[in-house]
Amino acid sequence: MSYEKERQVAIEAALTAAKLCEKVRQERVPEAIEKSDKSPVTVADFGSQAVICRALAAAFPDDPVVGEEDAAALREPSMAAQLQQVTNYVQALTGEANPEAVLSWINRGNSEIAPRYWTLDPIDGTKGFLRQDQYAVALALVEKGEVKLGVLACPALPLALDQPNGERGVLFVAVRGQGAIMLPLAGGTPRPIRVAAADDLANLRFVESVESGHGDHSRQDAVAKAVGITADSLRMDSQAKYGAVASGQAALYLRLPSPKSPDYREKIWDHAAGTIVVEEAGGRVTDMYGKPLNFSLGAKLADNQGVIVSNGSIHDQVIAALQETIG
């Protein structure tokens, strides 16, 4: 399959969601609502999920969507003002919306996995979004457990990481067997991307999460040094890290289990879109034991622990070095 319709719908939906998120950031100081797991959610998270699920429902009414958010909190009487804010932002970008429709669109993202499904993180990196830093709108199509299409909209990401004050806003797109591209969110000519070459020492650096609870920074640093990466890590929120590896601006992304939660299993929406972007750019994505990520088991990567993302050529070295740290 060419997935051309899926690709166009996903791109347009992600771009609309990114516009909504940026409008929220520019027009108001984003306020976080605390979810039951203590993680934050904002008006922009809800609005982003609503516009994307609306677009998917119109184009692919039989496709389930496994997303991060649900509308339960917005149904509380105390949240009436926030629900109206979400509705207003969705209305401004889609031309249609009322509170009940918005709640319905958000909850369309509460489906279970199926032989074919979409997985969505409407704002991957909400803490980065709140601090005016990196975040991503991440959408992926999965069939029979394999990611077939991925779109990452990264509104705050510089087109060139070594020019942090340059143009910002990047869209990454990948279709299985068709390669990966990047282009400015503002519009422009797409260009194919490839991971860093093995001898490209200038780009032999690694990226990791900002949050200490999202990894094991000391072990990640030890592994990176063991494979010859001596530069300090570049810390950023969201799947923008996958984009850095896919575009050859970093060679490695490590997300190893935090010592505080060694049995933690990652969510599928935090990795699906980024995985295909890196793989189609020539890189490799596995768990910390070298197993491919399994997107067929549910909302969590229940069969995987930790995530290693690389340019491919150093991947086996990374796994070997990691096993040395485990002892």
Short description:
This protein has helices at 4-27, 43-59, 80-94, 99-107, 126-130, 217-226, 240-246, 272-280, 315-326, and strands at 33-34, 40-41, 65-67, 116-124, 136-143, 146-158, 168-175, 179-184, 191-192, 206-208, 234-235, 252-255, 284-286, 307-310.
- What is the string of helix and strand elements? HEEHEHHEHEEEEEEHEHEHEEH
The radius of gyration computed from the alpha-carbon positions, rounded to a whole number of angstroms, is: 19 Å
CATH superfamily of the largest domain: Fructose-1,6-Bisphosphatase, subunit A, domain 1
Give the C-level CATH assignment of the largest domain: Alpha Beta
- Count of distinct structural domains: 2
Please give a structural write-up:
- This protein is an alpha+beta fold and 327 residues long.
- The protein has 2 domains: 4-192, Fructose-1,6-Bisphosphatase, subunit A, domain 1 (Fructose-1,6-Bisphosphatase, Chain A, domain 1), CATH 3.30.540; 201-326, D-Maltodextrin-Binding Protein, domain 2, CATH 3.40.190.80.
- It has 9 helices and 14 strands.
- The protein has a 7-stranded mixed β-sheet, sandwiched between helices. Strands 11-10-12-14-13 form a 5-stranded mixed β-sheet, with helices on both faces. Strands 1-2 form a two-stranded antiparallel ribbon.
- Helix 1 runs antiparallel to helix 2, helix 2 (43-59) packs across helix 3 (80-94) and helix 6 crosses helix 9 (315-326).
- The mean pLDDT is 92.
